[in-house]
Input
Amino acid sequence: MKVIVGSTQEIAEKGAQQYVELLAKKPNAVLGLATGSTPEPLYAELIKLHKEGKISFADARTFNLDEYCGLQPTHPQSYRYFMQDKLFDHVDIKAENTRVPDGLHTTPENVEEYDRDIALAGGIDLQLLGIGVNGHIAFNEPGTPWGSLTQIVELTEKTREVNSRFFDSIDDVPTHAVCMGIRTIMNTKDIVLYALGENKAEAIKKTVYGKISKKCPSSILQLHPSVTVYCDEAAGSLL
Ligand code: GLP
Output
């Protein structure tokens, strides 16, 4: 696991270079994308590079990590809405090449189809991750089996509380989400994990140096062959 500490802008620029290089080498690369406030500076950097003609997403395909159950794609807090707003609407990606799990049609067949479609696309080349204060990756909360594939998960009270800052009240935060599993994430070829802020410092310490334990889902990343952790000074302060 490689760790890079820098200012928010520095790490956004360095991470964005990984995307520039990957898409130059493999224009139809499959990107695993993430939501939350953390990836926003990276997405802003990718949009800037695109406008400067340095990166094209014309043939890229994307699969997002997760989506809340029950929110329409037009709901401002749905992850589909977030992706359109923060990235897709500003670059040359084709709408049909972007996938966000379907939080409205959650039959077992629909949910299982996601892993199948990732495999049919050739697997994810570069997976972007944020991290929860409890070490969750996507919405894989502590205790999630290492072998899990895309599934419906119940959000912990802690996660709902943390994410309630985006909603009018905690009661509006969905209780469930569709989420790529730990195995789905571990099967990706390269991973970049971003963390910003002091409240992520403990989770980052456990990710990099902690015992591999389901109590901290991100600790499994120690076993992945190609992970780069980008953190700002605050998130990296306990390393
Ligand atoms: C949510 C998302 C995660 C994200 C995490 C951290 O729960 N499902 O994918 O990594 O929050 O969010 P933030 O980046 O806003 O701190």
Summary: Residues 34 and 41 are 12 Å apart (CA to CA). The longest strand covers residues 190-195. The radius of gyration is 17 Å. Residues 34-38, 65-66, 130-132, 138-139, 159, 163 surround GLP (CB under 6 Å).
